[in-house]
Amino acid sequence: MNAKILETENVTVSFDGFKALNQLKFSMEVGELRVVIGPNGAGKTTFLDVITGKVQPTVGRVLFKGKNLRSLPEHQIARLGIGRKFQTPRVFLNLTPRENLEITSNHNKNVFSTLFGRSHATESNSIKGLLETIGLTSKADIPAALLSHGEKQRLEIGMLVAQSPDLLLVDEPVAGLTDEETYNIGELLLTLAQNHSILVIEHDMEFVQQIARKVTVLHEGSVLCEGSFAEVQNDSRVIEVYLGQQQE
Ligand code: ADP
Ligand code: MG
Q: Which of 10, 94, 112, 151 could join 60 in a cystine, given CB atoms 3.0 to 4.6 angstroms apart?
């Protein structure tokens, strides 16, 4: 059995000869919460694109639960169990948070309860639980348009979870949020990490420190170093690439 949920083997992505990812070797275990950081242009978004099938590796392989994803279209990769949250919230503004969760919830995974005729109760229970997890119980039945930016982000993370993916990819979830909303998103991801595999891309170092277990630093399309937040923060190579960026 393969205990790795995700692996990349020497993945290179070239755009007209420019290597956005360069021989990238990465792996994470089932159940892990991993944070990927790196200066602008390091290849973080391309990394997610190559996992979800939006971009094909020029060289190398991406393995999800040991399965090679090469040539699979995006919707099939999503169906295999990879869910992605984009940077800007994409919730249905005219629907309530409850309705947003209802329409995105994965009915297939409730197939046994359907057989026993309990699907409706099971589903409304899980939506109730999910509303609590994302802290939107008191706003469950107002239009999503009335939510704050942070609440919309939490709702969209809830919608991602409602699809029951095996791996959650979360791209810069706290960009543009207040400190309090940032903290809430961090706590939400920590709660979800108790029973999900999660890969988070983020810039905000305070937030990274709040949620980090193992951190991977990308630089020029490759892994520069990996370790705990403290290890990575004190690594001279990491300090150099971040300082280099500030001086530009
Ligand atoms: P990050 O998310 O870490 O800031 P990206 O993955 O967005 O970095 O980009 C990595 C590098 O690849 C950047 O230099 C970017 O300009 C380049 N790049 C990304 N996508 C494309 C594309 N479709 N065509 C050409 N160059 C691209
Ligand atoms: Mg990016």
A: 10
Q: Are 140 and 131 within 8 A, CB to CB?
A: yes
Pair 61, 182: CB distance under 8 Å: no
Note the pLDDT of residue 111.
46
Nearest atom (ligand 1) to Cα of 55? 23
Task: Give the residue whose CA is nearest to atom 20 of ligand 1.
Answer: 46
The widest CA-to-CA distance across the chain, in whole angstroms, is: 63
Alpha carbon distance 156, 153 (integer Å): 5
User: Which ligand ends up closest to the CA of 222?
Assistant: 1
Cα 197 from chain centroid? 9
Over residues 138-196, the pLDDT tens digits come to 999 999 999 999 999 999 999 999 988 999 999 999 988 999 999 999 999 999 999 99
> How far apart, in whole angstroms, are the C-alpha atoms of residue 118 and residue 26?
41
Averaged pLDDT for residues 59-78: 96
Q: Please state the length of the chain.
A: 248
Q: Is the dihedral of CA 187, 77, 8, 87 positive or negative?
A: negative
Distance between Cα 138 and ligand 1 center (Å): 40
Selection from 185, 89, 194, 175 nearest residue 135 by Cα: 185
Residue 71's region, left for phi above 0, alpha for psi from -120 to 50, else beta, is: left
Q: Which atom of ligand 1 is nearest to the CA of 221?
A: 10
Choose among 76, 30, 24: nearest CA to 48.
24
Q: Tell me how far the alpha carbon of residue 167 lies from the centroid of ligand 1, in angstroms.
A: 23
- Taking the centre of ligand 1 as the mean of its atom positions, its distance from the CA of residue 220, in whole angstroms, is 10
